[in-house]
Amino acid sequence: MSECIQISFAVCRIGIYTCFRALCCKGPPPARPEYDLVCIGLTGSGKTSLLSKLCSESPDSVVSTTGFSIKAVPFQNAILNVKELGGADNIRKYWSRYYQGSQGVIFVLDSASSEDDLETARNELHSALQHPQLCTLPFLILANHQDKPAARSVQEVKKYFELEPLARGKRWILQPCSLDDMEALKDSFSQLISLLEEKDHEAVRM
């Protein structure tokens, strides 16, 4: 009987030691990868509001970006350092000066905008998709303001922007979004992170 008690006590000590090592000796968690992204789109497309919501900032503090701003947007498996560029007419011509070093692109469009603004957004997206510093990068294209009555569907945007023929062979995602559906927005960014990780793995294999 005493032998059984000794064996049980020994097993118990081993269990406590194993738990202690698991809790205290596993070291810090691995660092999340960081990616540098550029975020572009016309004024009023909602770039600043979307990024601020992802960073859990108060909507009362949102001010339209006139030059550029940088936000570190945290996700469970990555940190996105997003350089947001203002979308006014007199700023868009300087966008390309800020493309260097980008690893991915976020393009935000107002799906409920006027025909003229939608045409301008299409031209800017086409220009970005073909720019030498961006053409090989993953693109997340967000059709924002889906909560508005005049919003075009994703299929309408895809057809109007001629994405299938223009972006064939490129890595791109077109997703609907609005501030009212943060889960869908976060899922869109998760898909972008997956594309960024794939590109990283390809670079390692090369």
Distance between the termini: 65 Å
Strand arrangement in the largest pleated sheet = 2-3-1-4-5-6
Structural class: alpha/beta
Low-pLDDT segments, ≥5 res = 1-25
Architecture overview:
The chain has 206 residues and is α/β, with parallel strands linked by helices. The protein is globular, with a radius of gyration of 23 Å.
Short description:
The chain has 206 residues and is an alpha/beta fold.
Record keyword descriptors for this entry:
disordered N terminus, Small_GTPase_ARF/SAR, 6-stranded mixed β-sheet, 206 residues, alpha/beta, 7 helices, 42% helix, globular, single chain
Please specify the SSE layout and strand pairing.
Elements lengths: L1 H23 L9 E7 L6 H8 L13 E8 L2 E8 L3 H4 L11 E7 L4 H16 L8 E6 L9 H7 L2 H4 L5 E5 L5 H24 L1
